[in-house]
Each structure stands twice: as structure tokens, then as C-alpha cells.
Amino acid sequence: MKLKVNNVDYDLDVEAEMPLLWVLRDELDIKGPKYGCGIAQCGACTVHIDGQAVRSCSYPVGAVQGAVTTIEGLGTPDALHAVQEAWIEHQVAQCGYCQPGQIMAAAALLAQQVAPSDDDIDNAISNLCRCATYPRIRAAIKTAAAKLQGAA
Amino acid sequence: MGKLATITRRTLLVGSAAVAGGVVFGVYKAKAPIKNPLLDSLQPGEAAITPYVKIDASGITLITPRADKGQGSYSLQAHLLAEELDVDPHGVNLSPGMPDPAYYNAKVMSEGLPFAATDDSKLARSARDMGGTMAKMMGMQMTGGSSTVPDSYEKLRHAGAVARETLKQAAAQRSGISRSELNTKNGRVLFPDGNSIAYTELAAAAAQLDPVRDVALRDQSEWRLLGKNMLRTDIVAKSTGTEIYGIDLVMQNMLYASVRSNPGLGGKRLNYDAGRARAMRGVKKIVETRHGIGVIADNTWRAFRAVNAIDVDWGKPDYPASSKETWDVLANSFVDEHRNSRLKDLGDVEQAQKDSKVIEAEYRVPYLAHAPLEPMNAVVLVGDERLDIWTGTQIPGFIQDHAAKLTGINNDNVFVHVQPMGGSFGHRLEFSYAMQAIEVAMGVKGTPVKMTWTREEDMAQDFPRPAQIARGKGTVQAGQLESVDLAIACDSISVSWFGRLMGMGVPGPDLLIVAGAWDQPFDIPNYRVSGYRAPVNRPISSWRSVGASGNGFFHASFLDELMHAAGADPLQELIRLCNHDVSRKVLQAVGDLCNWQGTQIGKNRGRGIAYTLSFGVPVAEVIDVTNTPSGIRIDKVYVALDVGKIIDPVNFEAQVSGGALFGLAHAMNCELTYENYQPQQTNYHTYQGMRLHQAPEVMIRGLENAEQIRGVGEPGVPPAAPALANAIFAATGQRIRELPMSRHIRFA
Ligand code: FES
Ligand code: FES
Questions:
Q1: A106 and A122 Cβ atoms separated by less than 8 Å
Q2: In this complex, is the C-beta atom of B243 within 8 Å of any C-beta atom belonging to chain A?
Q3: In CATH, what number does A2-73 get?
Q4: Do residues B431 and B393 lie in contact, with contact meaning Cβ atoms separated by under 8 Å?
């Protein structure tokens, strides 16, 4: 089975029904996507498939058709994505465990909508944060939107 | 003999000595100097001047022994050390260190004493010192009770200063220039002529010196880092997916495991059939554990699938199997036989209520799960006479003790490597997951195994926040509160938890049954708070803000009902009744912040206020809600509080906001209900909490009038639920006396 993750091609021998999350985490050792619930309820496992945010814990690897991007492929400490920059500026993270998923959900939203309203943000981001960092998540999304617009 | 046994005996000794009125043993032990644990493992050229600072030629490592569950404690401890040591906290290594008595937490035990935080008497003060002394003797290395800042504030600055002066002494010896003429900056000692030398180059020489102990702490006016906005040391890693949590660890040849145990905590595993599991792809081994069954596989998901495919019969533990039975036990506990404390007893409640119209109300709060987003996990490597465990925990020393007891491996050969944690909220004050991981890893000695609970297992194996019932009776007269009689029934968290942790109960009343209610600073003429210890005995544990999480709701809700009946403005009446200056200013500050004009703020809208003192921190919260066609919407939250000194304004705000919203999330829609020992809420679909679209704006005012510095991780939680209930009452006329509120009202 072939899979492209963060621009690298892999050839895998796994069950088609294995969720993408566990292929990433345990077969490829890509640890940015997190396990929180396994039933598409928390969003900690959010990655992009061809730019769309998906909850990889509930996405069988056999069903993946496009290129997968995880938070590692979005940006790195030395080359931050605008959303990550905003997340650092606002110091959003507490325990930080939900944040790779939050950031991937926010990045997908901003790729589709350059200047989302509060309602747009409410509708697009349903990821759970048990530390309740929500006010800073909202502020960081707005800062990232402004950064991306400035850059465009 | 294991350390646990020693501790138990010592504790008993202190207990009996204290009863006899003497603390001879305690004083002796307490004055004995503490051994620096870093000295044991030093390599040539390394210096460990204090237990908190280790320097070698390649760099500086700061030891930050209080666990970071997300509250920013590593960063904060690093900044406290760095302030005096003159290093850049972002330019050094941080390590939580190994469990050791040197890292005892002096403040964590001061909370369990029968003195209100506002009690400044000599007796209260010396009792708090005694709590610290006991913690030192017992080597209580623990993170909890919002105690990291109070415990570390002076200790770590002092450690930084000792290390700095000792390094200067080494430089003085090398250069012949006296120490007093040397300065330090950014990891270097500066000579008067403008030359400098790195700390790392002085390490070997400093290691030969007796540490310079006679140091004075810098005045606040000289601070470079503290009191100013800080950048958390982990923020870049946590914003790029590069933070490595326990669940992310990878080791060579590592196998993956998952365990299922009796949902009736402590109950037996009876028969099981692992036939299907054994045949599944990737399964390496089925391992029996004391209370369940584990699967070792070559991938976490395969381990999950296989462990869920095992049919198991569970034995029945001897406590109520369902929440319904629990409620009956609680409701029947308001009798003298179960009375555990009456620490507040002012005036004469019975006399005051004899001929007046008595207002009565009953309140309930449910069992709650901790449910941090990272499910419990641990990597374990069992070798010959050595055990290593990598896990996120608040109690590394206790894990070491229990691991030694479980395996028979000597305590000194059990190494606990504390990992960054994806939340805790008290979950990691328990250790059953760690023991299960060890039991599984014993089945494949020499191979590291990562044991991970499924979310469902994490919910089922959680030691929850206890369910509680409170009954209030009160009277009002001439627009004022005249009497308050609050009785609370709850099982004992202290007995349950200490029993698991140390194999012993705790003597005397359990203050957690009434914390957040008995100790509130109000002069109500007739005022009584009684705790009833309900014999429920389902294992329970500490949940962010512990006793105050439920009692804050009871106390502040009932006061609001009475103030409404009196026709009093709740803010003005709380200010009038308040007998604690620092708290009164907090109440006034929240009024200023929200521009308080009473509880009516417009059509379909309402405003509520609640005040709770917990962990020594007075917190007042005001909440505005709107009753929309799709349900109650929380519009805004205002918080004022006083922690004495704000070390990092950025993280302070994050903790206060997070605490208030955490309280609201659970008040809105979270509960655990049990049926046949099993929680009916198995995952986040039935334990929703709050999502972004429901999160209100939070405005915060931090005051610094209190004399003593306090921690801020928990005190924001308790007033949130009652402030919301009071706001909903103001908006709708509906009193909600039972949590979660979703049982009674809809949220937008
Ligand atoms: S782990 Fe995928 S949504 Fe929770
Ligand atoms: S930061 Fe802890 S779960 Fe979001």
C-alpha cells in the first residue's frame, strides 16, 4: 500500500482498516498527530488530506486517496507556518496536547477562507481542548488570518 | 525494606508524637540537612551545587521537580532559578530530575489542616510549619494543591543564588579577585576588567568547593524575568507538534500494549477467553494482570483491537454498583453517626431559625472524570534487578515505591523518568496505569513496552471526583443574611487516596469534605458548616480544585438564594459580610471590572456572582448569560483574584481563564453515572465539555494585596459553576441546584 506523507512516499504492509492515525504514529513514527478519543470526537488527530482537515483516528488508511500533511509538514520550529507563529505569539498552549490538531484545523480553515468571521471560526473549529484555551485559539486564528492576508 | 514501609512507620511516629504534644523526632529529622541527590551520579568535571542546578562542560541543566501537566510549571521553575543564577531559561536544559526526598513539597500538606487560609493566628502558622516539616520527613515529592509556586518561590531563587555565588567563588579562586568584585550575566562570571568566563568552564572547580550558603535574594526592583511577561520554555515545541509526551516515546525494539481491568476498581478478574485476541495480527503475548488482562502487540491499534476482543468476567467489589445507590447512601448520611466535622459554628443557628421562616435547599454534584486529552500511558523496561519507567506523573516517588513493592526490585534500582503531560487535572495523582504497564512489561523482560489505555479504559479506570449532596437551611432578616446552616455529605477523598498511596488512612476529620465552604471569610451572625462522611467507598480522588469544586457551588449558590430572598444586592451583601480585607478588595475589583449594577442587565439576560476562597486564593467571578431561542449562551466572564504576587502575567491569565472555563464546561454538561460499576459515559461524545463556539470572553483582574504568594492552577475553578447558576436564575427565574445543568436546561 502506498502513502504520501509530508512529501515523502511510503510503501506499507498494513491492514486497510487501520486508522491513518496509527499508521502515522506507530508505523511511521510521526508523532505530531495525537490520540485523544479514537472516535472523531476530539480532533487531536487532525491532519490534512489534499488540504482538507480530517480526523485521522477515524479514517482507514486504505481509504486515503490524496497526499497527507501532518503538523510536521505544515511548519517547523525553524520555518514556522503563519498559524504556528500566531500560536506562539499568543502562547495558546497549556498542556499543548490538543494543539497540533487545533493548528491543523485552523490552517485548513484559513486556506479556504482568508478572513473568517467569528461565526465561521465557530463552525469550522470543533476540536476539544480540555485545558480550555479557547479564547487564545480564537485570537490566534485572527492574528494568523491577518498575517496571511498581509503576506498575500 | 522499601521506602514506603519506612515512611509509614515514620508517619505513625510523628502522629503519635504529635498526639503526645511532642515533636522531638520531627524536629530532629527536620533539622537534618538534606542530601543532594545529584552528587551520586556526577561524572568528573560536573558540578551539582544544589539539587536544582547541574553544570558540566557542555551546558547547564536546571532541575524542575514539580511536574508540568500543562500549567507551565517547568517554565516557571526555570525562570525562578534563572532569575538569581543569571542564565537564559531558554538557553539551558531542563530536567524534572529523579524522584528524591530532596525535592519534597513543603506546601502541599499545609492545606489539609483545620485552619482557614485567612487564619493568621500563631497556632495556625505553626501548624502550617508542622505540615511542611512532615512533608520534608516523608520526602513528599508531589505536584498538586496549587502548591508549586508557594513552595518554589523562595526555594528555587535561593538555589539559583547559591549556585551563582559558588561559581563566583570558583572564579575568585582562579583569578585572585575577590568574589564581591565579580558580577554575573547570561551564564558567565564577569571580571572588573571586562573579561569573563563561562559557568561551564568553572564547573569542575566549583564542584570542589563548599557551596556558598550565605546569600541574600535580590530585591524585586532588580528582577529581569519575574513579574514580567514570559515566553514559556515549551511554547515553540507545543506549537509545532515537536513536544514529546509520554505517549510519543519510541525506543529500540519497543512493543506496544494495552490493558483492560475490572471497571469495578479494585475488583478481581475472573475467567476470560483470549482465543480471538491471540489469533489477531501483530499480537505477541497475552499477559494476566492482578485486576485485568493485557495484550502486547507490535502496534498500539492492534493492541487496542485485541484487548477489546477478550471476553472477561469481572468480580464484584464491595461498594455500590450504581449511582442510584450512591445517591441513597449520600442522602442517608446526614446523621450524627456520620458527622465528621463542624469547623464553622458561629452564633446559634438553631435558635435563629426557631421562629423564622426557614429557606431550605438541596444541591447535588455528580461524579466527574478527569479525562485529560492524553490517555494514561507508560513505557517500562524491566531488566535484571533494574526497572525503568517513563511516564507523566505528579507522584514519581510513590510510583518508585509501589514499583519496587510490586516487582521486588530494590527501590534504588527503580528509575522514574517523568515525561511532559497532556493534561492531568488530578488524574496523575493516581498510579494504577503505571503498575499495569509494569505488570505487562514483566512478561517480556529486557524489551521496552509502551502501555496505553484506550480512551474508554481511561474513563472506566478513572478515580473520579466524588458525588456530593448538600443541604442548606437559612434565614434572612431586614434585608440581610441572618443564619446559614450548610451540611455536606461526601465520601472521604483523603481516606480513599492515602489508602491507595500509603496503605494507611488519615486521622481526624477530612477537611476536603467541607473545603471551600467552612473556611469562607464571612461574618454571618449565625453560621454553621458541617461535614458528613458518607460510607460510599467507591474509590475517589482529587479533581482540579478538589473539595472546593463541589463545595464552592453549594456555598455560593445557597448564599445567593438567601441574598435574593432578603432582597439584597448580592455583591453589596457579600462585601458587607466579608471579614477579610484582601477578599473584600477582590469583590470590589470584580464589581469595577464588570461595572456592576445588579443582576438584571436586559431582556432575556442575567448576571450572577460567586465568590470562593480556595488554596488560600480569594476569587470572585461574575458571569453574564443570555437566554436565546436555542438555549443559554454564556456571554462573558469577569474574574478578580489575589495570589499575592503574579510571577508571569501571561501564564497567570491562561490559568485563571482556563480554570474558570474548565469549571463552566463541567457544570454545563459533564457527569459520570455508574451502572453495574461501569460509567455510562465512555468517551467524549457523552462527556462533551465546552467547545470553541461556547467559550465566552474572559476578563481578568489580578490583585497583589495578599501577604503570601499562592498558586493559581485551581482556585479559578470553584466559583464558575455557582456564578453561572446564579446568572441563569437572574435571566430565567430558574434555580439550578444540581449539576450538570444540562439535566435541567439547554445550552446554545
Ligand atoms: S483522536 Fe481522532 S478525533 Fe479524537
Ligand atoms: S492545551 Fe491541553 S488540551 Fe488543549
A1: no
A2: yes
A3: 3.10.20.30
A4: yes
Is the pTM value of this prediction over 0.80?
yes
Q: A82-151: CATH homologous superfamily?
A: [2Fe-2S]-binding domain (1.10.150.120)
User: Would you say A37 and A57 are in contact if contact means Cβ atoms under 8 Å apart?
Assistant: yes
Contacts of B692 in chain A (CB under 8 A): 121-122, 125-127, 129, 134, 137-138
- How far apart, in whole angstroms, are the C-alpha atoms of residue B494 and residue B512? 7
Q: Give the whole-angstrom CA distance, residue B285 versus residue B296.
A: 5
* Segments of chain B scoring below 70 in pLDDT: 1-34, 41-42, 44-45, 106-114, 122-141
Q: Which atom of ligand 2 is nearest to the CA of A132?
A: 4
Spatial distance between the Cα atoms of A82 and A88, rounded to a whole number of angstroms:
10
- Class for the domain spanning B246-317+376-452: alpha beta
- What pLDDT score does B98 carry? 80
Burial code (b: 16+ CB inside 10 Å, e: under 16) for B432-449 equals bbbbbbbbbbbbbeebbb
Q: What pLDDT sits at residue B13?
A: 28
Q: Are B609 and B724 in contact (CB under 8 A)?
A: no
Query: CATH 3.30.365.10 in chain B, residues?
Result: 4-240, 246-317+376-452, 323-368+464-743
Is the confidence metric ipTM above 0.90 for this complex? yes
* B172: closest CA of chain A, how far (Å): 40
CA of A152 vs chain B CAs: smallest distance (Å): 23
Map residue B423 onto helix, strand or coil. coil
Q: Which residue on chain A is closest to B374 by alpha carbon? A: A36
The answer to whether the CB of A106 falls within 8 A of the CB of A83 is yes
**Nearest neighbour of B238 by CB, restricted to A80, A93, A125:** A93
Grid coordinates belonging to B409: 526490585
Cα distance between residue B719 and residue B618, in whole Å: 10
- Which parts of B186-227 are beta strand (E)? 188-190, 196-198
* A6 vs A71: CA distance, rounded Å: 9
Cell of B243: 513536544
- What is the topology classification, in CATH, of domain B323-368+464-743? Aldehyde Oxidoreductase; domain 4 (3.30.365)
Chain A residues with CB under 8 Å of B299 CB are: 18, 22, 26-27
Decide: helix, strand or coil at residue B60: strand
B377 close to B354: Cβ distance less than 8 angstroms: no
Of A31, A88, A130, the CB nearest to B371: A130
Sheet holding B283-288, edge to edge: B283-288, B292-297, B255-261, B449-452, B377-383, B386-391, B414-418
- Nearest neighbour of A26 by CB, restricted to B301, B373, B654: B301
Quickly count helices (H) and strands (E) in chain B. 20, 27
A53: how many CB neighbours lie within 10 A of its CB? Answer: 22
Where do the domains of chain A lie? 2-73, 82-151
Residue located nearest, by CA, to atom 4 of ligand 2: A129
CA distance B382 to B657: 42
* Inter-chain touch A31–B244, beta carbons under 8 Å: yes
Q: What is the pLDDT of residue B36?
A: 74
Amino acid at B79: H
First to last CA, chain A: 38
pLDDT of residue B507: 75
DSSP-derived letter for residue A79 is: B
Confidence (pLDDT) at B619: 98
In three-state secondary structure terms, B26 is helix
For A70, the grid coordinates are 501532518
Domain B4-240 has CATH 3.30.365.10: yes
**What residues of chain A score a pLDDT lower than 50?**
none
**Within an 8 Å CB–CB cutoff, is residue B633 touching chain A?**
no
Sequence-separated (6 or more) residues with CB below 8 Å from residue B27: B133
> Distance from the CA of B684 to the center of ligand 1, in angstroms?
10
The pLDDT value recorded for residue B114 is 65
On the question of a common fold for A2-73 and A82-151, the answer reads: no
